[in-house]
Each structure stands twice: as structure tokens, then as C-alpha cells.
Batch of 2 targets.
Target 1
Amino acid sequence: MQWSAPRNDGPSQAAGNTTGNTFIMSDIQYVAPRTLDEAIGAYAAAGSAARILAGGTDLLVQMRSGAVKPGLIVDIKKIGEMTAIEETKDGGFRVGAAVSGMALHDHPRFGKVWPGVLEAINLIGSKQVQGRASAGGNLCNASPAGDSVPALVAAGAVVTVAGPQGRRELKVEEVPAGPGRTNLKPGEIVVAFTLLPRPKGASDAYLRMIPRTEMDIAVVGCGVNLTMKGGVCTDARVGLGAVAPTVLLVEAAAKALIGSKLDEKALEAAARACSAACRPIDDKRGTIVYRTKVAGVLLRRATAIAAKRAQER
Amino acid sequence: MNVVTNNKWIGQSTIRPDGVDKVTGRAAFAADTTMPGMIWGKVLRSPHPHARIRGIDTSKAEALPGVKAVVTAKDIVEFPVDKSVMLGIQDMRWMCRNVMAREKALFPGHPVAAVAATSEAIAAKACELIEVDYEVLPWSIEIEDAIKPDAPILHEFNTFEGKPSNIAGKMELKKGDVAEGFARAEVVVERTFTTRAVHQGYIEPHACLIGVGADGKTTIWSSSQGQFMVRAMTSLLTGIPQSDIRAIPAEIGGGFGGKTIVYLEPLATMLAKKSGRPVKMVMTREEVMRATGPTSASTSTVKIGATKDGKIVAAQGTFYLQAGAFPGSPIRGAAGCSFSPYDIPHVLSIGYDVLSNRSKVAAYRAPGAPIGAFAVECVLDELAEALKIDPLALRLKNAAKEGTKASHGPVYPRIGYVETVEAAMNSEHYKAPLGKLQGRGVASGFWFNAGGESSAQVNITEDGNVVVTTGHPDIGGSRAAIANVCAELLGIDYRRVSVIIGDTQTVGFSNLTGGSRVLFASAMVVTQATEQVIATLCKRAAKIWEIDPEAVTWEEGAARPAGANAGKFPPLTLKELADKAPALGGPVGASVQLNTQGAEGGFGTHVCDVEVDVDLGIVRVVRYTAVQDVGRAVHPGYVEGQLQGGVGQGIGWALSEEYIYNKDGKVDNPGFLDYRMPVCSDLPMIDTILVEVPNPKHPQGVKGVGEVPLVPVMAAVANAVHNALGKRFYALPMSPPKVLEALEVAQAAE
Ligand SMILES: Cc1cc2nc3c(=O)[nH]c(=O)nc-3n(C[C@H](O)[C@H](O)[C@H](O)COP(=O)(O)OP(=O)(O)OC[C@H]3O[C@@H](n4cnc5c(N)ncnc54)[C@H](O)[C@@H]3O)c2cc1C
């Protein structure tokens, strides 16, 4: 009987690993088109068995666990528009849906203008995961706990969607329909996020509660986007994650902040509004009572960070 | 005992011999091995917590193209329930039913059949085609449900106090008369504590590759804490004699006690035997979480009484530990270790082994002792508070010493418990100021430690270097430490000593890597073997010099005449003597096999600082010092590593780790996302203070060090949380929702 440990026998180890894959690669078709039209064509033609692949940090995990068994994988990372970061002349940004967290981190300007959005995206996973994971994937995976989504909702980001019927635009908060479900139509792909130019005195922040310090999933996530003028809050948006079937835009919390100097009374009202907006579940990750309380705490803390950043800008 | 103080290698943190392979990814773990013609095995597991198996129809699976073999309980040797057959601490009656459900499936994840096929996908498909006729039965998961009078009974043959019961055993340790002791107490604290089941959390899932030849000769490549345990259990469960089974220990990616029993090996052996092909099996993380380990959840009540001057006069503990689906929870560790650091005249300690529909528990670092210590050390903290005594001073006042009769039986020889308390009291940490919302807690702990069977060969190579072969898998760096010992005795550079772990057919029987035995036992046998080698080398030099062998000594790697009277000869080095070996009687080597005795228990005292985020209920450990009597730190780096690793696991147990069950009786968090083991950034740098009180019964003074460091941790953390918040927690884990809730209750009460 012949034994081989890999240290003596490289090829045999590789052969062992390929036969070891739980999903059989030949059952799955993979395409990596260079244009959006080709991608939409292939994706729409294959129907519900097809899946878009951005970073794959959700999709591959789901395939491995057997939760999804796609017949066709459409890799969108070869499409220029979807991996580009563009700063418009007026100071706005257009971020391709498949841009990785690390690529966005390395952009010289993006994090200066949208520190809250960037920190939310960069919180996803670890360094290794950051090399792949995208905001588009985070949004389309439609987990209520996705980290980038509350920050993008607070930022008022708009997504461009392209499908067999052409292009349309949606607000970020309009994309998720429920856990694991989106409002995208069959064959539609998220192409890019558009973030408007922002005035001086505007900034944002994102905080999440996780029991560990990293490699965890948000029990509550809160994005706050503020515009401050002379110490007064003139504009605000608040996004809350992991407290309802979809990420929430909490207008009542924003209202409580706008017009105030972010004094205790305004903060208390905004925190209450966040807690009131919660429709969480009791599960292994947190209780209803806990999530409801923590939503308000994070609102206060994220507001303080965003306000400080706004002052410095 | 070796009293030489100018050691060259003992006490050095030498580079670990397996280090380069591990950091470059070349090290071969069990799942890395392949064989020509290899096929894949997969286990079909019960979806039910409790069900009678009325029948299993495997015909559709067997008919699937690519399927080469299917096994069920019929293929595994049965041990009747009425006769105990022990292998170490495991009873084969339970093992044979744990590896493959027989009459009943007893927990979700319990194997009911296994398939081998040409690919993993086909094996998985074949599992789906197996039809199991289950009669679903009522079940219980938690201790309080399992011990109710009307609880569903797991094993009808198991009785307690004359009735069918889920209490599988009781043990009682008694010293003095507690009633008399408590009558004299002026302050008594009694509390009840609960802990949750936690997994050992080794990163490498169970895996094996097994080939059975046409002649029945079997080769097992697997990752375990004992290749001899793998051989013996596989032999008993398959009927193949031990002499026909060669179990090769792969590198192991963690065990912490969880790899001291087999799960896959008997199944893969039978699949290989039936199919005639080598069979590989690798568990997924989910399988690991559902069907292996963990350690027990528990409910403990501890009562301690003292006089006003802080002298403890009586202590009583009742510990209910979950066994899972089969008897055998670590009540001995819980009941037997928790009062051991103290000199208490009257002690009564009772443990109950409780069955329920969970996976069978496996050993986990000082099995049972951390559970007992959590209760005892928290009560001591309350007692110190009530007596207005510093908690370490209370421990010092009641510390066990040489001559103390331990509550678990023995009279202690020279031990180092007092030294650990003093070192903690004198540490800079214990005196450092605390910040806002920070608190400090202390706790001590004890573990028995083990010796037992160990074998080693020391062979001099033809080029004058050394190969040491031992029989215990290296989990904690034992190869480096053994090389230190051998190099020290031979007086040569430790890099000339290569230490390997032999397989079952090339080295003598060696007990499991468990019980903190490995360096204690293997250093003892390696010392004796090396001394025999040195004696041979001296004899050979004597022959060359034509003097009496008694007139030769071995120093600094060479034979030398012992003093002027012996004559004047230039030294003969190891290399020179190896060169001359053929002419002088042949190869030089020695083999020693012992049942090692004299492993003394170990003590530790820990100091923990926490900081609490009171709005989110998050407790973070911000500073930690583990003090331990380590006997002799042969390799200080790995001793420190053991202490730090134990503390890391204890912090997880205290704050975030727990098995969560859903309403269907299934584990709801069978993966590392929701089973929250701490990650690096959750922990501070863990400081250690190594107190060295050498074990008088060991040539190098070695004591086991690997298990003690988990024992005090949960209590140290809980006591620190109390110090920070003024609020005591009696249930683990102290997870954020629970901490926040407790703070709100406290606030509402104010
Ligand atoms: C170790 C680890 C840690 C993680 N930690 C976090 C964390 O801390 N926080 C967090 O929020 N998430 C976390 N995740 C989940 C995951 O990394 C994120 O959701 C990530 O943003 C997904 O992006 P992706 O590009 O990899 O998506 P993919 O896996 O490629 O796609 C996700 C889903 O969206 C669809 N999709 C992707 N792009 C598009 C598009 N442009 N148009 C339409 N559909 C699309 C895919 O078909 C798929 O269903 C973690 C994952 C791992 C493996």
C-alpha cells in the first residue's frame, strides 16, 4: 500500500482536493463577460437558476453549505463600469457595484468625503474578505445585518440598476425586500452607487454592535449622516440595520436631530425614535429588548462621531 | 532529580522542530493525506434529538453508481449494555453506540449510517437515499428537564435509586463532617451557578484516511490525541486485532481533550474493508459542532463557611454535569478539584452525571475542574467581601501546603500553591490602579495531572546525531521540550536531536496526549533512555582506552576520563563514537517503556481586569495575569503558550461561548459565526508568571502545565465583573444581552 503525505507529493495532494469539492464544478456554468450587456443577456436568459458573482464572499459560502445551487454564475468583476470608482467634477462619487472594500479603502479621496460609508464597508469581514467583498454584494445579499447598507441609506445613495428593460434608479433603501430578497426584477443587476456632492460641514459615521471585536455579524448597525452649520444640524439621515426584516431609514430620528445643536434633548428624542422604529426578532444573536435598547445607544454614539467629523471638515 | 542549575537547553525557548512546516503550510494534517484509489466517506446523521430506529433501508444508496460501501450499526462490534468494557476512561458500551446509533438515535447529529463513494457529492447523495424508519420520541436537553420525574428516559436500563433515570452516576468525596464544620462557621455563603456547554473549538475538524488490505492489515492516518487510543478503539469496534492496525499520527490542529475518542475511524475502517478501497472522511465544522465534544453544561451549588478571622471551616458542593447521550461527564474533575487548593477540615463534594439528548461530552482541558472552580471561587470572593478580607489574603490564609490532606484524598507533597498566591499579590498588576468602569477579580484552580504509560527510543545515527521517537502526539510543543531534555543530557546542540512521534507499530505503547502528561511522562522515559545511551557510549570509550567503564564520564558531548587516576586520553565525541560503532558492538540506542508515576497536581492563581461598556453590556478583559506553579519550565515559551491559550479559552467560556438550542432540540449555532469563540482582538496580551517549584518525583522537576490555566478563568472574570459593577453573575456566559438586562434590573431597583 502506497502512502503519500503532501510534503512528499504535491500533485497527489492537489488531485485529492479537487475530487473533494462538495459541489461538482461541471454542474455549474461560469461566465465572466466584459460588458454589461453580455452579462445581462446571459443572466436574464438563464432565469432563476443564475447567480451574479461579485466578490463571492456570500455566494460561495452559500453554495458550499448547499443553500444555493446555481446553474450559471455570471462574474461581473471583468466589467469596467462595475469595478470603477469615479469622482465627478462637482465632488460626487460613482462607485461600481463590484468594487472591493480594499479598493475603496485605497482610493485617495473617497474616505475623506464619506468616512462613514467607507468604515461600514471596511468593517465587512477581515482583510482577506475585504480583498473581495463589495457593497453591491452586501446590498443584494439582502441580509438585514449587512454593514454597508445602513451607512449607504444614511448617505442617501442611489443605485443604478440595469436589466433587459434598460436602466433605472432606486434609492438604496428600496432594494431589499426582506431577508435574502430584493426588489430587483428578473435579469436586473446593480451597476453602481451614486453619492451626491456634499456641502462643507457634512460628514457621516457608522457603528455596529457585535459581541466580538471582529469577524462577527451586526446585532444592530447604525449609520448617521449629518450636515452642521454654525453648530446647528441642518440636515440628517439615519439608517438602522439588523432590527427589522430590511434596513430602515429612520426619518423620525433625523427629524429630531435637524434644527438642534445635537443637545441631550435632541439626542434622547432621536435615540427614542430609533428604538421605536425597531421591529426585531429574538434569536441567537440578540433579544428584542437588547436590540431595541442598543439601537438608541448606537444612534447617540454615531451622531457624536459624525458631528465631530463634520466640524473638522 | 536533576539539580544542575547551569542548564544549557533546559529552560531555553528553542525553535520548535515542526515550526517551519507549520508556518509554510507543508505540515501534513489528517485531511492532507491521499492514497491511490481513495474514495470518500460520509455520515448520515439523525435529524431527531431522540428516536427509536425501527429499520434502515440502504438498498437505494447501494444501487447508486459510484457507491462502494454502506455501513450501519450492524457492521460495528456490539458491546451489550449490561457489561462494562473499559478502555481508559471510556466505556465501549457507550462508544459503540456513539459512533453509530444502534437501538436509538439520541441526539441530532448522531450517526445512523455511513457511505463510501467515488466522490463526496455521490456519498452525500447516497446518504439522502438511505431510508431510516424513526419512531420519534420525546426528548430533553437541559439538566433541569432531564432530572424531572417524568422526563423522557434515554436508556431504559439505567436506573438511579431503583428507578429508570437520566442520572447515570453519582460520586461523593468526603472529608470530616460538614454538619459539624458548618455549626462552627460564623459566616456562610451559599450560591447556585450555571454554565453552558462549550466546545473545545479546535480549528482542525476530525479527519482520517484508512486503508484495509486484502489480508486485513489496516493503516490509519488520522489526527487524534493518541494513535494508540485510535488503534485500540478501532480494534474493539471493528474486531481487527491491534497487531494488524497501524495508526499513524498526523499533525494535529488542536484537540484540548476533544480528540481523545474516535468518531470516524471505525466507520472509515469498515467502509474501507467492505469496499476494498482506501476511505477518507473529513467532518465539516457543522458536524464537529453537532456531534463531537463539547464539555458539559452544569448546575452547581456551593456553600462555604468560615470563622470571622477568615478561617474556612466547612465547604460543600453539589455539581450536576451534563453527560450528553451517554454516561461519563467529568464529575470527578468538578467534585474532586474545586476545593483542592484549600486546607479545609470538613468537605463534602457530590457530583451527578446527567444524561440528555445532546452529543456525548468529551474531555476538555482539566475536564470538570473549571466548572467546579467557577462556583467555588465565586463563593470565596463573596466570602472575602463578607469578611472584609482581601480575596487573595483569604486564599493565602486557607492555602493547602505540604502535608495538607486534600479534599480529594491524597496528602500533598511539596506543592507551590502558596507561591502562586504570593506572586499574584506581589505582582505589579495586582497593585495597579483601575480605570472607570473597570474591575479586578482573582481566582485559583487545581488540576490532578497524569503520568501513565510512555515509551521512547533514543537512537544515535551513523553520523553521530540523535533521533528520539516517542509515542504521544505533540500538541503543545512537546517535541521541542523533549529535544531540550535530550540535548541537555547528551551535552550537544539541541538541533542535533530530532524528535518524532512514532506510529503504533514502531514505538511502544504510550498513553493519550491528555491529563497534562506528555512532557512529564516522555521526559522521564527519554531521560532513562538517554542515560542508557550515555552508559553504552562510556563503555565503548572505556574499551578503546582499555580502562574500567566506571572510570569514564560523559560531559559536554564527549566521553572523558573521570579524573586524573583514569589516565590521560583525549575526549571521544559522540560523532567519533558513532563512527566507531560497527567495530565496537554495533548501533547505539536504547528503548524505555514505563508506567510513569509521580505526576503531581498543579495550581494556578489568576488576576483579571475587565472594563464594562454599561450601555451595550459588553465586558472586555483589559488585563490578565496567570500565575502558575509549573514545576520546571523546560521550554518556557511553550509553557507560557499553554497558560495564555487556557486563559483565552476561559474568557470565551466566561463571556461569549455557548451552545444554543432551538425549540426542536437542535443546536442553533453550529459554526464559528454564532458560536462565539474569542478572536485575537478580543483578548489583551495575557501576562504570565511562572513559579517553579520542581516536582521532586521527576528527573527535571516537570509538572503538567496544560490544563490548570483554564481552571480559574471564569471565576476570575466573574469576580472582576462584580468588582466593576457591584453586581454578581451566577450564570455563564456573561453575554451582552444578559449583562445589560442585569444592569437595568439593578437600575430599576435603585
Ligand atoms: C468571513 C466572512 C466575514 C464576513 N463579515 C461580514 C461583516 O462583517 N459584515 C457584513 O455585512 N457582511 C459580512 N460578510 C458577508 C459578505 O462578505 C458581505 O455581504 C459582502 O459585502 C458580499 O459581497 P460580495 O461581493 O462578496 O458578494 P457576492 O457573494 O458576490 O454576492 C452576494 C449576493 O448578491 C448578489 N449580487 C452580487 N452583486 C450583485 C449585483 N451587482 N447585482 C445583483 N446581484 C448581485 C449575488 O448573486 C449574491 O446573491 C462576511 C463574509 C465572510 C465570508
Note: Chain B touches chain A through 46 residues (CB under 8 Å).
Target 2
Amino acid sequence: MSTKFDLAAMKELPDSSGHFGPYGGRFVSETLMAALSQLEQTYEKLKNDPDFQAEFDKDLAYYVGRPSPLYHAERLSREVGGAQIYLKREDLNHTGAHKVNNTIGQALLAKYTGKPRVIAETGAGQHGVASATVAARLGLECQVYMGAEDVERQKLNVYRMKLLGAEVIPVESGTRTLKDALNEAMRDWVTNVDNTFYIIGTAAGPHPYPMLVRDFQAVIGREARQQCLAQTGRLPDALVACVGGGSNAIGLFHPFIGDETVRMIGVEAGGHGLETGAHAAPLCAGRPGVLHGNRTYLMEDDAGQIIGTHSVSAGLDYPGVGPEHAWLKDAGRAEYVAINDDEAMNAFRTLTQVEGIMPALESSHAVAHAMKMAADMDKDQILVVNLSGRGDKDIHTVAQIDGIIV
Amino acid sequence: MSRINSCFEKLGQQGRKALIPYITAGDPSPAVSVPLMHALVEAGADIIELGVPFSDPMADGPVIQLACERALEHNVRLVDVLEMVREFRQKDGETPVVLMGYLNPVEVLGYDNFASQAAAAGVDGVLTVDLPPEEAGEFGEALRANGLDCIYLLAPTTTEQRIQHICDSGSGYVYYVSVKGVTGSASLDVQAVAEKLDLVRKYTDMPIGVGFGIGTAEAAKAVSAVADGVIVGSVLVKQIAALADDQEKIPEKVAAIIAEMRAAMNA
Ligand SMILES: Cc1ncc(COP(=O)(O)O)c(C=O)c1O
């Protein structure tokens, strides 16, 4: 892979105004500008503060259970008959997904800035659960905005959040999914900006969120890089991760940006197929625009209205994507593809039956594409797949597709 | 001189304050908007803020969110809103019209294309809620090149440093968001607004309009004592929503709210 850009410089982005090339930035109403620059200043100070970093690392080790293993899926690799597939086991984290890496970090920021209340948006409910979890642990009041449609299809996580002491607020506006939950969380934040910390769940939104979420998630890639070197003596040939807003993918990719030989492939939700329009693949089939505080690729109609998305996995059902992915795509450093609902469901079943690992439907998109890719690669090549979460939350959805009531 | 500048100059000479109603274009259906705009002017509106419907109005409360949804059911696009302004201009060459909305529909047209089409249609100013001056370099240039005013928001949270920067970047008037919150929030504290406006006036001679949380004639009167303009939106949009099944009544009933506010402000 060659690009016309200086990879070392690319790794240092965003620039001081929060841009990744033409993407990112801070497109919010005036009321939030002060809070965002305050957050930026706080984070710039704390990110080099040894005490803050030590506390973050300690929480990741003893509360989340890091490092997560890099697991050689030997049987799956044999079945596919190509490259060796390694799974980065974020599904083994406390609360069952990569989301908690970020909420631990942001909750620490909330603590350091003295905000007694946190809010979050959630799609699949994983980020909501991870937010409710850290809020419970730190004794913070927590409210989670969730699209009314997602409340329906992720009942288990809704109840988990309630058990953890959070209030789940169903959002009835717009398409009643993740994008509307994000709108509503922003509205809450504008209103309660003095006492509230907004824990964004993915590497998107206004600067500094895409940067700080990426930094908190980059532990995935740092570990994977070391583990791959330790286990195989070399770097992987390619990385594969699913892309909703892009946090698990950028977390895996970022530490490898300077490693020119390592391909990076983000997998978007192809839904019923890109040609049907019923998907959630802005990088594959959208175009640049401005939504939720940043410039990035979006799914929109000819008039610039954001359009409804479809994916079997609620966590990928989002019409935008983090700005760093938009830039990695344009710069040619990362590639983006789409996997359909059916292909993801098949990968869910295959991984479950062949390795005894039940992936989240989001992660199943990455597994599906990795299986496709691996088949065309040599046996001595290495593919690292981010297994961003476990599938327990999706049992209902899978059972429903099977026509079974559980 | 721009229509907005001459409007404020004339008001200043008369010792009056501007009354600035907001409506969402195409709510509840496209045919209502232009007659409603004329009725508002008749009732005493000085400037009209015409909302451009957007699918994700992040800074708006439920009242204006629903207005956007109603307009979008009729597929009202930015180009359709410009068409409404063009129609309005056939009978009214004087009242300034300010478009208020979000950036993404403008992105699709392209800044220069949008600005020249808007100017040709008779638009006077543009307020883009999710575009702070830091991100507005090219956009501001396109507006200026076409003689359009770029109107910015100030908020209770805006620092003194930013007040200066924002006032230096904008033209026409500045829009002071009187409460921390979305449109249609709880009512404002006039004393706090007055204090903030004193601070803003250290940095600009531009007129200051105050909006968010003004829902009654008394509030309009109180704010007009300290500001140069009073911006009202949600209370009008609520009335529009209530008449969605009886749309011929909308111009008269909504204008009545403005007439009452005008009377209170003039008293
Ligand atoms: C398990 C899992 N993977 C992936 C995602 C997608 O988010 P992101 O693209 O930010 O990693 C989600 C979101 O809910 C998730 O729960």
C-alpha cells in the first residue's frame, strides 16, 4: 500500500483545530463551543499527566481485564483455507465489548472535571451499558438516550442499564435510531452543560471527541501489535474491523498507521446490499457533509437531508462515521468495504460453531470479511480481526431470524 | 445599504425595536409559508427568519423538530425555500429575510452556488446554527461576495474573547441565545440578558437580537427594553401545529400573536 502522504504526520492528526485533512472540526451551536474548548484543554493537559495515565491503565487492567488476548483461530483458519486468522478478543472485556475502554477514559475525565452527571447515546446498548457501568462505579448520575426502535430490539441491554442505575430515555424523533439518540444527547448537553459530561460512544462528534475516543481505544492496536510480534515474530498483513462510528476500528488501526506493510480494512454494514440503498455504509456509498459536529462521509439524499439506514446490527446502524476514517479513506491508507446482513449472520454462525466464540452482530461483519479475504491469501499470511464484542445481546435478534421465541 | 442595515436604521430613527418572527419554511405545507410571511409583516414584523427544514435539527426543541418533520413530509428542500423567498419578494421588496438552518443542505449546493442563488432570490442574511466562525471561512466569503449578511449566535456560555471574534466575523446583527438550551426552552431571565448585552456592546455596534425562550407579549416587551430585536419562534410554530388541519386560518392566527407582541413593544 502506498500513499502520497507522510504516514508519520498522518498519525499525529488531528491538527490543532481538530481536522483530519478536510474532515472533523467543530460544527456545533455556539452554546457548546466553550465546553468543547474546555474539554480539549483538560484533555491536552491530562493526556500527558502520569497520574491520569496510571489511573487509566490500572482501571483497564483490573476492572476491564486487559490485555485482551490475541487468539489464533486455528480451526477457522483451516476451514477457510488461507491466511491465519487472529482474533483480538475485545468480547472478553468487562461488559462484553470494546466500548468500555472509552467509557473508562471519559468517566475519568468527568471525574477530573468535577461533573456529577454523565449522559450518553447508544445504539446497540453496548455503549450505554458501558457508560452506566462506569457511572455506577464512580457514583455519577447517568442518563442514556436510545432510539425508540433500538429500545425495542435491544431489550436485554435496556434492562442491564436500568439494573446499573441508569435511566434510559427512548428517543421518538426522526428515524428513532442512533443518530436521533445523538441529537437528543446533544440537546441535553446544551441545556445542562454546567454539570454534565457527555460521554460520546464512538470516534465521531465535534473536536476533541474523535481524538480522545481514538486515544482511549488505541490500547486495542497497541496490544495487538505487541501480541502479534510476540506470537508470530512479525506484523500482521492486514487488520479487519467493523465500522459503525468507527471507534473499535480506529482503536485497532491507529498504532499501525505508520506500518506501511499492514493493510487496514474497515467493514461497513451493507444491510440488504449497497445496491438496495438499505444499508449503513457512508464510506462505501455516501459522500462528505456535516452532521453531529464534524465533517465526514454521510448517507444523505440529494437535498442534504440525512437518510434512514438499515443494518441487522443496531451498533452499525448510523449514517455517519468518524472523521479520521474519512481521511484514511481519501488518503488511501485504509480501505473500506461492506458486508451484507446475510453474510454477517453466516459468519456469526460459523464462528460460533467452529471456534465456540459467539460474536456480536457488529463484529460478525468483520469476521465475514476476514473469511472472504483470508481465502485468497497464503497460509503464512496473518489477518488480525477485531472481535469488538460478544453476541449475547443479539440472541433475541438471531432467534427471531430463526423463527424462535426465547 | 443592505435591507437589514436600513431596517435597523429606520427603527432607530423611530425609536422602535425590531420584532423578528421565526417560522419553518413549508410547515405544515409549502403553500402556507408565503401568505404567512406577508401576514407577519402586516402585523408588525420587521425581519423574517425563515427556517430551512433539516432532518437532524440538533439545536432545536421538540416544537421546531416537529415543524421540520412536517415540512420534510412535503419534501421541502433548500431550493424550494429560496423559491418561497423569490415569491415573497414579488410583493415585498423591503422586509429583510434571513434564512436560519443547518450547514448540510448548504454543503450539497456548494457555498458559492448557494450564496448567489440566495442573493438572487432576495435573501438578506444567513444564520447557520452549526457553523461557528472558526469553521466558516469559505462560507463567510461566499456570503460577503454576494452581499449577504452572515449572522452568528452568541450564547450565555460565550467567553469574552469569543464575543469579540464572533462580532468581528459577522454582519447585519448578532443573535444572542438567551438561555442554555434548545429552542422553545424555559423562559429567559431579562436581568441576566441585560448584563450580557452590556458586555457584548463593548465589542460591537451591531444591533443585537435576542431569542430562545420568548413566548409572551410581556416577555417581548421586557426584552425589547434591553435588546435591539426580539426573536420569537416556538410560540408561533406551536400555533401553526395546532392549525395543521385548518391551514387557511394559519396566517391570521399566527399574525395575531405578532400583533399583540408589537403592540406591547410599542406601548
Ligand atoms: C460490539 C460492537 N462493535 C462495534 C460497534 C460499532 O461501533 P464502533 O464503530 O464505534 O466501534 C458497536 C456499537 O454499538 C458494538 O456494540
Note: The mean pLDDT of chain A is 96.
